[in-house]
Design goal:
CATH superfamily: STAS domain
Number of helices: 5
Order of helices and strands: EEEHEEHEHEHH
Number of domains: 1
Strand content: 25-35%
Strand order of the largest sheet: 1-2-4-6-7
């Protein structure tokens, strides 16, 4: 199940719980695309605290969307994942190495505010001459 979380205009934020299904991407992808339509770069936050697993259709939709964005990964500035599940942390750290143009970080259960502040903070870093 997908819940769109309140976030700054340049952050796509979701709570993913239970079983992620292919139909959930009918909500998630348009939300991301709306952010990209109005912003050169965005951050993405996924609160996966209560995530259990995903269906094969969801995995297919996820991979198809990722492939469709291959030339645009630099538009995804930061990605924050919230979870205490070791396999999600390991997967996020691997993705961080595979996609160096996207800064990724894992936060733990209860750190939603910190994760949101960090994922949205790329704009401050750009303004202040950081990244």
């Amino acid at each position: 199940m997908i819940e769109i979380l309140p976030a700054p205009e340049y952050v796509a934020a979701f709570r993913i719980s239970g079983t992620l299904r292919g139909e959930d991407y009918d909500e998630m992808i348009p939300a991301i695309e709306a952010k990209l339509e109005h912003n050169e770069q965005i951050g993405v936050l996924a609160d996966m605290t209560n995530f259990d697993h995903m269906t094969a259709k969801a995995l297919q939709r996820d991979l198809a969307y990722a492939v469709s964005k291959l030339g645009e990964y630099s538009r995804f500035r930061r990605a924050a994942v919230i979870s205490d599940k070791r396999w999600i942390e390991t997967t996020t750290k691997l993705a961080d190495r595979l996609f160096p143009q996207i800064e990724m970080r894992v936060f733990h259960n209860g750190e939603l505010e910190d994760a949101m502040r960090w994922v949205a903070g790329f704009r401050d870093d750009l303004i202040n001459g950081g990244l």
